[in-house]
């Protein structure tokens, strides 16, 4: 027989209209067989077995009203199975409308499958009636109750499904206890039929593209324990009826464009353990009723527009382990009741408008491992009770207005890995007790008013990878123990009043990447260990009084990005080795006593954007090979003894914005290639 056109049959079946006409023919005594023949003829050729099945139906005088009542789903079933399972023609008469709950569940899934895109249907290829998986309980992502064989779990997370939920009749699954459709591409509204699942305990629709609102009917999910709707596009307000879900343990509805305030009724969910409302457009204050949630272990309420004070009732949450309120508009002081959170492990109040002093009660948080209070307006001294936090690993108080001395009690924080106090107003000396923090990996005290010498005890910090002390008032010479920092990768000492020599063995570990000691009063040679420090990426030693031979001080650095030695008293020549630094973007040797010629091989550093050799004693001609540095933005060769003509090839530097060749012995005319270069200046 002819080809069976599945898509056309499905489309016309879903219209139901023709099915109803068939039923009408039966009811009025007209010939139903003729009506069916007309129906299928209009649909295009169909297999012979479909027509014979229709005849069998007619001769057995089955109840058409039942057929019509379930016409959509059963029509689809017939199409999938080529008509052979559409009607049963042997044994006892089979009435489609009398199908048991198992059939209804299976047909509801089939209908939804066919509403998804073709790729999604492929992922659900086991969903076939009469197929190798004879029972729908064996279909992928489907689980049934052992005795009733009714579906109780739908688990289709990360299946790549694309479509809506509108064609999934949730009311067909009265025994459903778990739905997991997370991490797909489902879109559209959450259908109201879902809210009829009174036995549902687990609902996960997170990481999709669902929209619409969270209906107040969510309260009908009276058995719900876990609700995950995060990372969708659900908008509107959080319905106050959410407070009726008194058995809820996890409420995760983050990363949706919810607006309005947090309903106070949320405080009625007494068994709630985890609350995630972050990354949305919520506004208004934090409700004091949060303090009623005494079983709460986690609060994720960051990146919203909530404002006002942190309610002192939060101190009632004795089970709380994680409190994340960062990037909001919270103001006023941190309530002292926060010290009651004896189980707290992470406290993150960063990026708010908090003010006042750090409460002494914070010293009661004996289990805390991480404190993030940066980017606020907190002031005053750091409480000495900070020394009680023996489990603290991460302390970040940067970008505040803290003042006074760093308390010596900090030595008790023996598990501390990260200490960030930069951008404050700390004064006094760096306490020598800081050297007892043997596990410290990152220490940043930059942009404060610290003074005095660097304590020798810092050399005991064997695990220290980053030491940043930029822009303080530190002075004196560096202790020799600084060479003992065998794990150091990043050492930043710029903009202080240090003197004496740089640490000679600073790069002895093969890990050293960044060194800045600029704008100090260092004298003597460049550290010998830097010559073979192939791991070096950035070196900034400008504006000191360093001496020695530049030619012999450096080797080849395959990862070097930036070097600035300007404003020193270095002599020697520019080594051709710099041409082997293929990642170098900026080289500045200006304001030294460098002589010799510009090496031709420097043009091999093709990533150069800034080349500044000005105010030295360079002689000879400008190599035309520099014209191949296509990325060059700034070229400063002024204040030397360069001679001859400017190579015409230099005019090919299309990105050049700043060119200064003044105060040399150049001859000839300006190459015409420079004509119209408004940004270029200083030719002479």
| β-sheet strand percentage | 15-25%
Q: At CATH's second level, what is the architecture of the domain at 542-684?
A: Alpha-Beta Horseshoe
Helix content class: 10-25%
Query: What name goes with the CATH superfamily of the domain at 542-684?
Result: Ribonuclease Inhibitor
Uncertain runs are: 1-99
Shape: globular
Q: Would you count the extended β strands for me?
A: 44
CATH class of the domain at 542-684, anyone? Alpha Beta
Structural class: alpha/beta
Describe the protein.
With 684 residues, the protein is α/β, with parallel strands linked by helices. Among the domains are: 6-99, no CATH class; 542-684, Ribonuclease Inhibitor (Leucine-rich repeat, LRR (right-handed beta-alpha superhelix), Alpha-Beta Horseshoe), CATH 3.80.10.10. Strand 1 (142-144) and strand 2 (151-155) form a beta hairpin. Helix 2 runs antiparallel to helix 3, helix 3 (32-43) runs antiparallel to helix 4 (48-59) and helix 6 packs across helix 7. The radius of gyration is 38 Å and the shape is globular.
Draw up the topology in text:
Elements: H1 6-15, H2 17-27, H3 32-43, H4 48-59, H5 64-69, H6 71-80, H7 101-115, H8 118-123, E1 142-144, E2 151-155, E3 162-164, E4 178-180, E5 185-189, E6 202-204, E7 209-211, E8 226-228, E9 236-237, E10 250-252, E11 258-259, E12 274-276, E13 298-300, E14 307-308, E15 322-324, E16 329-332, E17 346-348, E18 353-357, E19 370-372, E20 377-380, E21 394-396, E22 401-404, E23 418-420, E24 425-428, E25 442-444, E26 449-452, E27 466-468, E28 473-477, E29 490-492, E30 497-501, E31 514-516, E32 521-524, E33 538-540, E34 545-549, H9 550-553, E35 562-564, E36 569-573, E37 586-588, E38 593-596, E39 610-612, E40 617-620, E41 634-636, E42 641-645, E43 658-660, E44 665-667
Helix pairs in contact: 1-6, 2-3, 3-4, 6-7
């Amino acid at each position: 027989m002819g080809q069976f056109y599945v898509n056309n049959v499905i489309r016309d079946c879903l219209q139901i209209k023709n099915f109803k006409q068939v039923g009408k023919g039966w009811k009025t005594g007209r010939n139903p067989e003729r009506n069916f023949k007309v129906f299928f003829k209009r649909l295009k050729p169909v297999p012979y077995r479909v027509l014979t099945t229709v005849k069998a139906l007619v001769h057995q005088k089955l109840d058409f009203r039942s057929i019509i009542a379930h016409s959509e789903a059963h029509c689809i079933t017939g199409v999938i199975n080529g008509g052979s399972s559409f009607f049963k023609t042997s044994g006892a008469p089979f009435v489609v409308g009398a199908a048991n709950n198992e059939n209804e569940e299976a047909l509801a899934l089939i209908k939804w499958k066919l509403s998804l895109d073709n790729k999604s249907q492929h992922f659900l290829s086991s969903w076939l009636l009469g197929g190798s998986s004879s029972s729908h309980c064996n279909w992928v992502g489907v689980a049934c109750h052992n005795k009733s064989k009714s579906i109780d779990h739908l688990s289709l997370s990360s299946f790549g499904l694309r479509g809506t939920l509108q064609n999934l009749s949730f009311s067909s699954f009265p025994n459903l206890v778990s739905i997991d459709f997370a991490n797909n591409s489902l879109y559209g509204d959450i259908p109201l039929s879902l809210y009829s699942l009174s036995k549902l305990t687990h609902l996960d629709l997170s990481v999709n593209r669902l929209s619409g609102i969270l209906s107040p009917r969510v309260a009908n999910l009276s058995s719900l324990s876990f609700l995950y709707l995060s990372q969708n596009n659900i908008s509107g307000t959080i319905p106050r009826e959410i407070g009726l879900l008194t058995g809820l343990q996890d409420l995760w509805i983050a990363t949706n464009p919810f607006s309005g305030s947090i309903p106070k009724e949320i405080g009625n969910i007494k068994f709630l353990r985890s609350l995630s409302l972050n990354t949305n457009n919520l506004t208004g204050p934090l409700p004091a009723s949060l303090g009623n949630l005494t079983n709460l272990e986690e609060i994720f309420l960051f990146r919203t527009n909530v404002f006002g004070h942190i309610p002192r009732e939060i101190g009632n949450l004795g089970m709380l382990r994680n409190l994340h309120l960062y990037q909001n508009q919270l103001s006023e002081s941190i309530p002292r009741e926060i010290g009651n959170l004896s189980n707290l492990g992470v406290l993150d109040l960063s990026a708010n408008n908090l003010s006042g002093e750090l409460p002494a009660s914070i010293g009661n948080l004996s289990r805390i491992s991480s404190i993030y209070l940066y980017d606020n307006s907190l002031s005053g001294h750091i409480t000495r009770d900070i020394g009680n936090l023996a489990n603290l690993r991460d302390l970040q108080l940067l970008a505040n207005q803290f003042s006074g001395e760093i308390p010596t009690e900090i030595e008790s924080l023996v598990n501390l890995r990260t200490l960030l106090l930069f951008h404050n107003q700390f004064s006094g000396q760096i306490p020598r007790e800081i050297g007892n923090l043997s596990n410290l990996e990152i220490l940043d005290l930059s942009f404060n008013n610290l003074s005095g010498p660097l304590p020798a005890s810092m050399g005991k910090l064997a695990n220290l990878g980053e030491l940043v002390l930029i822009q303080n008032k530190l002075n004196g010479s560096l202790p020799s123990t600084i060479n003992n920092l065998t794990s150091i990768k990043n050492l930043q000492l710029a903009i202080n009043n240090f003197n004496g020599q740089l640490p000679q063995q600073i790069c002895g570990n093969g890990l050293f990447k960044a060194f800045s000691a600029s704008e100090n009063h260092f004298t003597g040679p460049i550290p010998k260990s830097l010559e073979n420090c192939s791991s070096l990426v950035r070196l900034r030693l400008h504006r000191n009084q360093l001496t020695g031979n530049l030619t012999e001080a450096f080797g080849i650095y395959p990862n070097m990005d930036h070097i600035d030695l300007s404003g020193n008293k270095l002599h020697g020549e520019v080594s051709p080795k710099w041409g082997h630094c293929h990642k170098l973007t900026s080289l500045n040797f200006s304001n030294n006593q460098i002589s010799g010629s510009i090496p031709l091989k420097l043009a091999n550093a093709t990533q150069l954007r800034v080349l500044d050799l000005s105010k030295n004693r360079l002689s000879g001609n400008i190599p035309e090979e520099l014209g191949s540095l296509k990325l060059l933005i700034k070229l400063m060769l002024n204040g030397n003894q360069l001679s001859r003509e400017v190579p015409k090839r230099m005019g090919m530097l299309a990105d050049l914005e700043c060119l200064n060749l003044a105060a040399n012995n150049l001859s000839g005319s300006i190459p015409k290639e420079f004509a119209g270069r408004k940004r270029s200046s200083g030719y002479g």
